[in-house]
Every structure is written in structure tokens, then in C-alpha cells.
Amino acid sequence: MTRILAIGECMVEMAPTDVAGTYKMGFAGDTMNTAWYLRRLLGTDHQVDYFSAVGTDSASDQMLDFLEEASIGTDHIARSPNWTVGLYIIQLNEGERSFSYWRGQSAARTLAQDDTLLENALMGADVAFFSGITVAILPKGDRDRFLAILAAFKAAGGTVVFDPNLRPKLWKSKEDMTSAIMQAAAVSSISLPSHEDEAEWFGDTDSLATAARYAKAGARTVLVKNGPAEILIHADNTVTTLSPEKIAAVVDTTAAGDSFNAGYLAAIVQGASEMEAAAAGAVLAGKVIRSRGALVAKAT
Ligand code: ADP
Fold first, then answer.
1. pLDDT tens string 231-289
2. Does residue 85 lie within any of the structural domains?
3. What is the pTM of this model?
4. Active-site residue 204, yes or no?
5. Cα 157 to ligand 1 centroid, rounded to whole Å
6. CA of 153 to the centre of ligand 1 (A)
7. Residue 141 lies in domain
8. Fewer CB within a 10 Å sphere, N or C end of the chain?
9. Residue owning the nearest CA to atom 9 of ligand 1
């Protein structure tokens, strides 16, 4: 049995319905989306847990119910009466989606306050999965300790998987973001960046430059996603590429990267080669972007 611990922030999502002015409540967030797809792809002989923090209000209760219904383990999610969960609203304006976020009171920002909680959650885990958003929401001191715990987990034989998921709005400055992202990359065994974002913030000229930077930081495997363009796989000092299937009817690219990560990781856990796993990631992401929303049940 493989036990995967995904670490980060899940939020309440208010998504517009077909009736103008009305919204449907759901739950989403990059690391949770990946956990959700992993849970659906992996059989019951594997375990997928989520590590975060929530409040004690009813929105937090509903979030935990949602995770439990999805069979994602919630035993290590801390609860605090002083906080709640983050929220975002999706607005549609002539077909264009825009997002407004309320995450200042999100308990997830405190997830690394107490080292022992994360250390306990990692006990018996084989894989820890986190993202650039996970580190962006942490205060600097907590972030440093959080990354030190992941480094120790990796040193003890665990696999640390990181999606940089660059979100400049969550950082004070470009320098804060890029230095923290590379600090996180340094504790990771597998890095799963998306070239377009990386090119913008790190100035990478191509996917190979992105892969080389993450490999140099310490990852043994780097997969560089690039929307519809070819995926670059840098593993065991060799570089290969794979073209995702062309999709004419892209409906919504939300969670393309998150679902790709899940398809890839589930395949790796089940013994696939890097190439097979990248293909599995691309197939799942390809199905997810043919439908609206982050969590597409019929894609799995
Ligand atoms: P992110 O959501 O992190 O920005 P990408 O946009 O790079 O990630 O997409 C992740 C994966 O989703 C790609 O590697 C590819 O497999 C698939 N994908 C995304 N957009 C498309 C598209 N337009 N056509 C086909 N596949 C796509």
C-alpha cells in the first residue's frame, strides 16, 4: 500500500449556475484537486490523505464532510475556532471567467504552525505532495520549518512531489516568490512545473531550461507541462518529450495541471514508467478540460 499525503489549502468555491445571479457551493484548491483525482484513480489498497487546517464553523464542517465523502483522509486536518476556510467566487462575463478570492481568514495559513502535526501526518507516508500555493500562504518562519520537515522526510526515503503553481498575487514581490519556489524545489524529488508560468517569472527560454533549473535544484525527475504543447520529461539524466492529444473542444482548462499531476502520480504509484505516467497525466487532463469545473467525476 502506498500512502500519499497532499498538503495545502482547500477553499469554498461559489460557481455560477445557469440561473443568473445564483451560485453553487463546492470545494476546490490545487492540492486538494490532485488528491481528489488520485483518490478516484487509485484502488482502495492505496491511501490518500489531506493535510491542512480549517475552522470550527459550519463551512469548515462541510469541507471535511466533502473530503470524507470523497474518501480522502482528514485525520490530520487541524481545527481552530479563530479561523475559517478561504472562499472564491467565479464570475462569468460574456463567457469569460474571473475569480475573486477571500482567503485572509483561511485556517490553512496556519497549517505549519505546529511542527508535530505535520511530522505525525508524514509518519508512514510514502509520498508528500505540495505546491507553490501551499508555501505562498505560509508566514516566512513557518515556511522555512515546513520545508525543513519535508527535507527530512525526503532524506529518510520519502518521495516529495512539488508543483510550483506560481501565483504572483500571493507573494509580496517577484523575488520573494522566486526564491521561496526554488527553496521548495530544493526539497523535492519530483517537480511538475508548467512552462508558460515559469518562462514569465524565471525567464526560461524553453521547457528544457525549466527542467534544467528544477533538476539542478535537486529533483531527480522533472516533468514540464506546457498547455497543448509537448510535455518534457527529464528523468535519470535523459530528456524525452510527449505530445498531448489535440483537443478541439476545450471547455474549461481549470485544474488541467492538477489533474495531470494526479494522473501522472497514480501511474507512478502503480509501477508505470515515467513516459507511461506522463501519458496517463495528459489523458486525464485532456478529459478534464473537456468539461466545466475543477473536479470532473466522469474523467476518471
Ligand atoms: P496548468 O493548468 O498547471 O497551467 P498546463 O496548462 O500546462 O497546466 O496543462 C497541463 C496539462 O494539461 C498539459 O500538459 C496537457 O497534457 C493538458 N492540456 C492543457 N491544455 C491543453 C490543451 N489546450 N489541449 C490539450 N491538452 C491540454
1. 999 998 899 999 999 999 898 899 999 999 999 999 999 999 999 999 999 999 999 99
2. no
3. 0.97
4. no
5. 30
6. 30
7. 3-9+30-80+106-289
8. N
9. 227
